[in-house]
Design brief:
Length: about 230
């Protein structure tokens, strides 16, 4: 069955790219026919290049990231600075074209769920239009439970019921890191909550997916159904 997973976050810099690259590498090693995309980005294309490397250069950089803008601002503002306009219909068409070629499509959003991506749309609009499975990424530290629940609450109910939440361990765990999963499970289905360890600032996907607990988590993440 063809699937689209949409990786969004509670904020910028919470580990969306790390998770997307790990999933891309893991699925490829499992024999999956997978495309990892970051359709829109601003301020540099490092995230798209990381996805390209994790996917063994299956796609060109422009296929992974068709809309890119120089200014390190919200994509909509960076696009306006360059006199450009990104439309939801165009992004959906690009992803759907990729879906015809690949069994699984991973999409990494930009910023948080409601950060504007283009004219009159955000990540929520895009994932709903694509009927994608939402994966909400958050740094596993104090405040994570509130941030995850706020993001989940912003999803339509039918979409929220299928969502997963992934808590990414920070380099320096705090007192809440060990308790967040249990507390979050009081308000959200425990089967949809996952956690991954800190692999390092610049980690090797190839080495990280050899980690047995991490492999089990990644496998459960893509197989899980409510």
């Amino acid at each position: 069955m063809k699937q689209i997973f949409f990786i969004t976050g509670t904020d910028t810099g919470v580990g969306k790219t790390a998770l997307a690259t790990l999933l891309a590498r893991f699925l490829r090693e499992c024999g999956g026919n997978v495309a990892a995309l970051k359709p829109i980005c601003s301020g540099g294309r490092d995230d798209a290049r990381a996805l390209q490397a994790a996917s063994n250069n299956t796609l060109t950089l422009d296929e992974i990231n068709p809309w890119h803008f120089r200014a390190p601002l919200a994509p909509i503002l960076a696009a306006r600075r360059e006199g450009k306009c990104v439309l939801l219909t165009d992004v959906v068409a690009h992803v759907q074209a990729m879906q015809k070629r690949f069994e699984t499509v991973l999409i990494e959003g930009a910023g948080g769920l409601l950060s504007p991506l283009g004219e009159n749309f955000d990540s929520r609009d895009l994932l709903v239009s694509l009927r994608a499975m939402p994966i909400v990424v958050c740094s596993n530290r104090l405040g994570a439970v509130n941030q995850v629940l706020l993001t989940l609450e912003a999803l339509p109910q039918r979409v929220r019921a299928r969502a997963r939440a992934v808590l990414m361990s920070p380099p320096r765990p705090d007192a809440a890191t060990v308790s967040n999963i249990k507390l979050l499970a009081e308000s959200f289905d425990a089967k949809g909550i996952f956690a991954l360890p800190w692999f390092g600032e610049k980690f090797s996907c190839a080495e990280a997916v050899k980690n047995s607990p991490a492999r089990r988590t990644l496998g459960a993440l893509v197989r899980f159904e409510h």
